[in-house]
Amino acid sequence: MTPDPDSPARSSTPPARRVTVPMTKEPEEPREPTEPGPPEQVPLPPDLVAGEHDRRHRTHRPWSARRVPAALVASVILVAAVAALFDVVAVRAGRPAAAWRRHLADELATRPLDDVWVLTGAAVAAVLGIWLIVLALTPGLRHWLPLRSPTPGLRASLDRDGAADLLRDAAMRVPGVSTGRVRVRRHRVKARADVRFRDPQQVKDDLTAVLDEERDRLVLARPPRIVVRVRRRTD
Length: 235
Known about the structure:
- With 235 residues, the protein is α+β, with helices and mostly antiparallel strands.
- Helices cover 43% and strands 13% of the residues.
- The chain has six helices and five strands; from the N terminus they run ααααββαββαβ.
């Protein structure tokens, strides 16, 4: 047998092997000591940050949209304006004025100012005007309690019923309290508890401390004052 001339000649040298280089981190050179700089600022606890924030700006109660009063006033004005405009257009077109407008004009022209109906209408109009002014100048949403905010643009509120439930649950954990009732107002929290055992004065002190702690956990912008009343139940 003779070797095929077309086949490549085999090399007498072995094939080169792939070298694997281990990836190791070179030891860092020791740095020269630098001059001592200013101490790093340690973040303050959240309570202190909230306290400083309260000194800078106040958290206000959110304003109500007043959708129902606005809708009522807009509806009344719209109906009156459309009726008057329709009657004026009819008169300009050559038709007689509407009976209700002629009757209203005669009554306003003939009745004296001390008439009962005139005084009643004026009183109703004044009451409605004062009501609208109060709605425009007050925020409303009295059932919501504003919370402390970490930033000026962020607002949060807590429902009074939710705050009352949290405080009542905390009051029921006090030893000696059998039943409890809590009512949350804007400036005061009224708590009433029935005592089955223990000294009522001790129960009152413990209950006041627990409610104060739970109230502080709510992070209210204006924490209300706690008023506790206890009574002994023997039945």
